[in-house]
Amino acid sequence: MLKRIQRFAASLWQRVILRSDPESTKYLPLDNDNSEPHAELRCPESSGPIMAEEKLALGLYSPEVFDPQTGKVTVAAIKIDTLIEKNGHVDICGESTGISVARIEKPEGAEELQRTLIQIMENRKSNNKQGKIEGHATITVKELLEIEEGAFQILDDGCNGYTTHAVIRAAEKMGRAAMRGPRNRLLEHLNKTVVRV
Amino acid sequence: MNLNSQTNGIVTSIPAYSTGMMGACAEDDMPKTLARTGLASSKRNLFFHISLTTAVMVAAAGEISPSTIQASARTEAASFDLYSSSEHVRNWQKDTLLKRIDQFSHRSIGWDGDDGLPPNIDAINDAKTFLIALGKNYALPDSVHAVGDGEIVFQWRRRYGVFVEVGFYGDETISWYAKLANLPADHNDSRFTRDKIIPIDHGLDAALKTLT
Q: What is the rounded distance in angstroms from the CA atom of residue B126 to the CA atom of residue B194?
């Protein structure tokens, strides 16, 4: 009976952390392979497992995250300590630590990303800061994992109201200095895919 | 302000600075720099005048034409203008970067609308100490940024994917990454203190010298 309850709970809370396996197109939940060391429980509101060809979108706003003069994503868009979280990452659906991205190809993806950007603008206004929503930049899961083998992880982190939410993290073994190169290449990639509103 | 502390690599022999003090130092440095440059220019002007006079005398003797003298004068004038301007540019760049770092200290929590942290005073002072210690043998950073995790980061970019980045969080560390052309990437998180002489890592030292 206890096992059944555990299995039921697991099926409700399946989450998957993707690692450097760019060839894979499918990331199966925990109950298919209990020995899978990278698998965790998925959020119930998630839009499903993340596929290798799926695009992840980073919301852009100026002036901090996007420089309208140069038309480029700034280094402030990818915080190294947010990727690493030296005190240990927190896993709470929708609030998990890491760089927040939206699974833009899902039906709700664009709308949810837009809503998040509007919220950020409102936060800025209450802080007496000007800003403007500039658009988004994308990268596929496969491209992200190929930046450097074993550098990044992607966590499916959907929640009520933001079902397409996911977070990008550094792999556990990576330190600040080691993440600087991958971050730079990630920014280079994002700069090639900027879509302005 | 000791800018000559880099004889055996970049060292941080500068005592701890407060933000206000650093601003004063940066301003204080400017008249000296201008004075030095002015002296250098006047010496060169004298040399230029003598060499031009000599050239006119030689021309009068029929060895070179007046048009050659004019061309030569233009070249010499351009060369010493370039000399003094490169020193000016470096000082101006350093000042601009220092002022930019000071501006970061005015940020408040949530400055980016996304729970961004401002850099703490130690991060600011570490970054300034590092920048001031960069002597003429080292390339100045192309840019400085404050990232929302409290980091101050310097970046150098060149063609062919050359990229160097140095970051400070104010926790007595220096975090750096260097990718030079045709070489594997090198990186390290090492100890950094402002009140002791600590040479920076050899890999970073070599990379920054290469970029000049």
A: 7
What is the C-alpha separation between A177 and B191, in angstroms, rounded? 12
**Other CB atoms within 10 Å distance of the CB of residue B65:** 10
Half-sphere CA count of A44, side-chain side, radius 13 A = 6
pLDDT in tens, B119-150: 999 999 999 999 999 988 899 999 999 999 99
Q: In this prediction, does ipTM exceed 0.85?
A: no
SS3 A154: strand
CB count in 10 Å sphere of residue B136: 12
Residues of A in contact with B112 (CB under 8 A): 64-65, 76, 124
* Interface membership of A80 toward B (CB under 8 Å): yes
Name residue A181's amino acid. G
Q: pLDDT truncated to tens, each residue of chain A (197 aa)?
A: 555 555 444 444 444 444 434 443 333 333 334 333 344 567 888 888 889 999 999 999 999 899 999 999 999 999 999 999 988 899 899 999 999 999 999 999 999 999 999 999 998 888 788 899 999 999 999 999 999 999 999 999 999 999 999 999 999 889 999 999 999 999 999 999 999 98
How buried is residue A116: exposed, middle or buried, by Cβ count under 10 Å (0-12/13-18/19+)? middle
Contacts of A127 in chain B (CB under 8 A): 108, 110-111, 113
Q: Is B120 on the interface with A (CB under 8 A)?
A: no
Q: Across the beta sheet with B173-179, what order do the strands follow? A: B143-146, B152-157, B163-168, B173-179, B186-191
CA distance readout (Å), B125 to A59, A107, B66, B90, B192:
32, 48, 57, 20, 11
pTM of the predicted model, to two decimals? 0.72
Residues of the domain holding A123: 2-196
Token pair belonging to B146: 């404050």
What is the distance of C-alpha B160 from the center of its chain? 22
Q: How many CB atoms lie within 10 A of CB B91?
A: 20
Instruction: Tally the domains of chain A.
Output: 1
Where exactly are the structural domains of chain B? 19-210
Rounded Cα distance between A152 and A118, Å, is 28
Chain pair A-B, CB pairs under 8 angstroms: 78
Q: Which two tokens stand for residue B35?
A: 């004075």
Overall size of chain B counted in residues: 212
For residue B179, the cross-strand partners are B163
